[in-house]
Specification:
CATH superfamily of the largest domain: GntR ligand-binding domain-like
Strand content: under 5%
CATH class of the largest domain: Mainly Alpha
Number of helices: 10
Oligomer: single chain
Strand order of the largest sheet: 1-2
Helix content: over 70%
Shape: elongated
Largest sheet: 2 strands, antiparallel
Number of domains: 2
């Protein structure tokens, strides 16, 4: 008689399944951000399962996961569709982002030191390297990483959790900034002004810098969407 399996071994299939779902979700996220799947497009579970060499179950679970992250919407008996954000919804995302980052900027200024400056300086350098590459996904991830690091350095875990909850929609927004910005190559270098403001120790300057930084991004995206719809 064989020995009973351990708790760990009984849970291995579940862990493997969850990893597969996350892999499918990562693939779909990148496809949506790069607009290989256009806003409003219906996703075919059958075709995706065939293309990825998996069953329909992990595709369906991944779609539900992305629905919870705000990237897909479901319609009864019709399936999942890529979420099409309108100008008002994008404005709401940027308003919430501004609230989070404005507060983080103030907290970070009060504790800003050489170590924090080095972390952010190196991240802007990585952003500039990414800007010179042909990888749109790398540009998006490095941009998001800078703002996440800034909030993490502010030392409020709840603030960081709120930002992480918004991160998937922010990826869509950052992708749209790159498509609508008059000079997309300048997006990375525009972050140097945030470091200058933090180094100044001036609360008003920090607030002005983050308001301008996010406000410009919001204006490009919202106006770009409004023009496309108009």
């Amino acid at each position: 008689m064989s020995a009973p399996s351990s708790d760990a071994s009984r849970h291995v299939p579940f862990i493997q399944q969850r990893n597969l779902v996350e892999q499918v979700a990562d693939y779909l996220t990148q496809a949506i951000i790069s607009q290989r799947f256009a806003p409003g497009e219906r996703l075919s579970e059958v075709q995706l399962a065939r293309d990825l060499g998996v069953s329909r179950a992990p595709v369906r679970e991944a779609a539900r996961l992305l629905e919870s992250r705000g990237l897909l919407v479901s319609q009864p008996r019709r399936g999942f569709f890529v979420r099409a954000l309108d100008a008002a919804e994008l404005g709401d995302v940027f308003d919430l982002r501004l609230c989070l980052e404005r507060h983080a900027m103030g907290r970070l200024m009060a504790r800003y030191d050489a170590a924090a400056e080095r972390v952010l300086f190196e991240q802007v350098e990585r952003m500039c390297e990414a800007a010179a590459s042909d990888s749109e996904s790398r540009k998006i991830e490095e941009d998001l990483a800078f703002h996440r690091q800034m909030i993490e350095l502010a030392g409020n875990r709840r603030l960081l959790k709120a930002f992480d909850g918004l991160s998937h929609e922010l990826r869509l927004c950052i992708a749209l900034i790159g498509k609508t910005h008059a000079d997309p190559d300048s997006i990375a270098t525009s972050h140097w002004s945030l470091l200058d403001a933090l180094a100044s120790g001036d609360e008003g300057r920090c607030r002005e810098a983050i308001d301008y930084h996010i406000g410009v991004a919001r204006d490009y995206v919202v106006q770009g969407i409004a023009d496309a719809l108009g």
